[in-house]
């Protein structure tokens, strides 16, 4: 992978490399998931947090920012179309495509061994600064899939992903679970999380650029 540390990303985006990583280190990950920690959200939902799953996260971040097929989508919000407050990219369901970084295929294989799902699609979201966000939502997943698993790798600046139950009683209204994600962290959502919970990445006063890589399965 080329080092594009001094490059400029989409929309003239500039970024500041983290001080936690090794500048220019080749990306790698831990196939043993040694630091995995499972958190039960309720009786049927869980998330796994694997801190520092990716080593050389800065290099992978820079490669994705520079080379992913970014687009700025417009979405319907109430009665009007608005620009989505982030950029998105979809690599598709052919992970052996030469345009897909080889490490994505290796990650998908490791996730398949651990979670028993054939991860065959990779997407990405680029949060350019603290103003970029994603509102509360559940991922669009084929309803025929039973307890789908979604794996997220966080690259670039730290941001917090929040989760909350879809059906909230008055006493739980407004409450959510916060998961601060550092560069290289892996967060896996399983059980009935995609149907009974929703998640968001809220706006913040100040933040650097962040990429969220999302691994999904279609069967």
Structural class: mainly beta
Which superfamily, in CATH terms, is the homologous superfamily? Alpha-ketoglutarate-dependent dioxygenase AlkB-like
Q: Number of helix segments?
A: 3
Strand content: 35-45%
Counted up, domains total: 1
* CATH domain fold name: Jelly Rolls
How many DSSP-defined strands? 15
CATH top level assignment: Mainly Beta
CATH architecture: Sandwich
Strand order of the largest sheet: 2-3-13-10-15-8-7
Would you kindly provide a brief summary of this structure?
By secondary structure, the chain is mainly beta.
Describe this structure in words.
- This protein is mainly beta.
- The protein has helices at residues 57-67, 102-115, 193-196, and strands spanning 28-29, 36-40, 45-50, 54-55, 74-77, 80-83, 87-92, 119-127, 134-137, 150-156, 159-165, 177-181, 186-191, 197-201, 210-217.
- It is globular, with a radius of gyration of 17 Å.
- The two termini are 31 Å apart.
Task: List the keywords.
single chain; 219 residues; Jelly Rolls; 7-stranded antiparallel β-sheet; 4-stranded antiparallel β-sheet; disordered N terminus
List the helices and strands and how they pair.
Elements: E1 28-29, E2 36-40, E3 45-50, E4 54-55, H1 57-67, E5 74-77, E6 80-83, E7 87-92, H2 102-115, E8 119-127, E9 134-137, E10 150-156, E11 159-165, E12 177-181, E13 186-191, H3 193-196, E14 197-201, E15 210-217
Antiparallel strand pairs: 1-4, 2-3, 3-13, 5-6, 7-8, 8-15, 9-14, 10-13, 10-15, 11-12, 11-14
